[in-house]
Amino acid sequence: MSSLPSIAILGAGSMGGAILHGVVSSARASTVTVTNRTREKAAALEGLAGVTSIALADDADGNARAAASAEVVLIGVKPAMVPDLLTEIAPHLRAGAIVVSLAAGVTISTFERILGPDAVVLRSMPNTPALVGKAVTGISPGTNATAADVARVREVFETVGTVLEVPEDRIDALSTISGSGPAYVFLLIEELTKAAIGKGFDESDARTMAEQTFIGAAALLEASGEEPAELRRRVTSPKGTTERAIAVLQAADLDVVFAEATDAALARAKELAAGS
């Protein structure tokens, strides 16, 4: 496989750090420079192969130097901090450098307005399974991003999972499914665990049953290549216990519940984008 472009991650917190570890694990990175505000966070990344870790507490110009070093610059700071950071690094970016947003709710137009009319920008929406190399990341190209630029960014995010290219007007909708989706799964596991405890199992056994059932079902789905509905049908024997349980769940109008939940998440995403 080809080498990845040189990369800078400005704000290598939880998501930026997850992508960093994926890039390093791929053994395809040429150079990676990361910044964090504190010495402690920077020190925790110093031992990674091929990584230059900068503490902004010691190097006030660290973001500018990191940005100047890279072909792909990932912006991983909190959304409210993005405009000031872009203003800081704009004069230092290489010609043709690709700037990628990890910040929820910050639009491509904001990046292009601050970085200038020639800026190459993509917006991304990874999710937390990036920490274990199982992310779903949505990417949206900006005005000047070419197919080659998109391909380079895709290679970076494929080190932590699956990548989908979507137009920017779908990125918030994507966030309500894959971005928030892990929380929905964790909630279902919580509730199934509570149900097991209610049937007399201790907490340890209840957790094991609920968690490993979800993990096993997901692994089976991935390995089989079958549709979820078909796998459900195979578990649901006619007039059996599972059929009775599924009937209760379907009577709860789960399709409506999930539609309403994701609609609520989308509405909040639009509020955040509007600054409210």
UniProtKB/TrEMBL annotation:
Domain Pyrroline-5-carboxylate reductase catalytic N-terminal: from-to ranges: 7-105
Keyword terms of this UniProt record: Amino-acid biosynthesis, Cytoplasm, NADP, Oxidoreductase, Proline biosynthesis
E.C. designation(s): 1.5.1.2
Catalytic activity from the UniProt record: L-proline + NAD(+) = (S)-1-pyrroline-5-carboxylate + NADH + 2 H(+); L-proline + NADP(+) = (S)-1-pyrroline-5-carboxylate + NADPH + 2 H(+)
Subcellular location: Cytoplasm
Top EC category: oxidoreductase
Residues reported in the UniProt entry to bind NADPH: N63
GO cellular component: cytoplasm
Protein family: Belongs to the pyrroline-5-carboxylate reductase family.
Entry protein name: Pyrroline-5-carboxylate reductase
Source organism: Microbacterium caowuchunii
